Predict the 3D structure of the following.
Amino acid sequence: MASFDYDLLVIGAGSAGLSAAQTAAKCGARVAIADPGPLGGTCVNRGCIPKKLMVYASNLAREKCLATNYGWVNPSGDFDWPTLKMAIEQKLAQLQKSYQSRLSKAGVSVLDCTARFLDPQTVELGERKVTVEKVIIATGAKPLKPDLPGIDCGLTSRDIFHLESLPKHLTIVGGGYIGSEFSNIFSTLGCQVNLVDRSPQILQGFDCSIRKTLQQSLIDQGVRMLGGTSLEAIHKTETETKLKLSGECNDTLIADTLLLALGRVPNLDSLNLEAAGIKVESKAIAVDDYSRTSQANIFAIGDCTNRVPLTPVAKAEGVAAAKTLCGEKPQKVSYRWIPSAVFCSPEAATVGWSEEQAKAAGVDYEVMCDRFTPLHYALSPWATDSLIKLVIDSASRRILGVHMVGDSVAEIIQALVPALKKGLTVDELTETIGIHPTSGEELFSMAGF
């Protein structure tokens, strides 16, 4: 019987890799995890966690404005970017220490180095070579930087958390999750923000009602929307950055900071996948339903594959792949009912099919849609509408998709998922008694109209 240095090598210590390594170790495997970066990967260090903490900071700025309508005569306090930056960095350091402790207790060897395949079962780890029985690749993705003149002047989501001071004039290129959320954060904190996107509306791929509602919300906050517009070139001087645009807006913008939020691409450059005989399709590692690559002993999970690029999905894929590799019953992840959210103010959340997806599937469907003002804003001088939209199968009355915009809608949406997976119908929603007065209650009320 062949002897290997490790039963399983996990390449990448982000959300996917950490869940895979810990699951395999619990199954009794000798596991190592290799990553030259800090534990936690993108989500913990330059993504979901620090970004959500910044969202909370910007929400407090909104609440400060609202406070005067609730009797607070002199709500005081000035925002200080360096203080927030330091607090976030301290929290991330705590999380990294926690991950290190968990891996140590599980018996996982943590290797602070890159991994490079020499063949399907031999991997170069820094300056040494090891043999491995099985491998899980979980190297995630990196920000996309197109080949444009001056593109290196632009920051990406990796860099934005390390700004020494709050920008005065920020231009964001790309209207997906990242661009929309950072537009909200920085505009609420007092920056002048331009949001440039090739599409007429932000958040391509989301339900049309969510896209329209969130875009109008950003405009109401003071974000200048430049839809149908592309970035052509960048020229940076000592004092400013000039951005040449084309499309519906062909102006030259001037900003002190440029954030590129043009999507992400799988991070595969250092792996030497050809040596392992691993197939790549559309710049991502090709996998089957069980996350197995073209090599039977090598799996790939998370954002280095071309599936659903969400942290909870990556974690689920990590658990399923580890259990499959460790000899338990093969497991795969279902992608039908995966909730997601965009953390703007108000936030948006969605699960299931959009109206556009139902139409493309040829399903006979109908839509229920309602807008309302939450009680939280009843004393506010500005209108803050919330949205609830249901996409329903006309024949069975089963709910195909739920889409919401409003405060705390991410919490509401994810609580519905178990019932939706079981075939929740509109009639069953109607029979549900909610809590008054809450936004969640509106979900049950509108279903009875």
